[in-house]
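In response to reviewer comment 3 from the previous cycle, which asked for concrete evidence that the modeling workflow produces usable outputs, we include below a single protein chain processed end to end. The sequence was submitted unchanged, and the resulting structure tokens are shown without manual editing.
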Amino acid sequence: MWDNVRRACGIYTKKRISCLRKNGQEVRNTSEMVYVLAEAFASICSASNCTETFLTHKNRTERIKLRFQTTKHLSYITELTIFELHTALSVIKHTSPGPDDVTYSMLQHLPEHSLLNILYMFNRIWKEYVFPNCWKYAFIIPIPKPDKDPQDPLYYRPIALTSCMCELFERIVNVRL
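The workflow returned the following structure tokens.
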């Protein structure tokens, strides 16, 4: 009952992973546990878990070169607007920040001239198709699956905390598409 009360009040306890099992052996060293979880997540996402039909389709599709030349007058090709940025900022949910430590609350409290600078950066990304390198990284948080063995690395699901700036840009683009 008290866990439910704490959650309702927004109080979450951080539970550390004390031990994992790999090949019947206990792993307690943090660096080794990170490696064990990374291996487990990679094995779950590997191509060996996909059907032959899907892999054939995937390989065929990935060989097709992307063409970014298109008609410039289409509405989704035009520059992003300050209205779109304000709209995206008004509907975001407050989530944990990614590797850059920028939070949605920070972005929502920026003055207008700073938002215009962000919009300028977003429009350069939109036109030039070049993304900031820091947007390519995320913090991966292992969340234990309920009612499963917490020592088995296969019973964790990875949650990726990406840059809030990247997510804001994605939100604007997704609304257009």
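Helices lie at 2-8, 30-44, 52-62, 82-91, 104-108, 112-128, 164-176. We consider this sufficient to address the reviewer's concern, and the full set will be provided in the supplementary archive.
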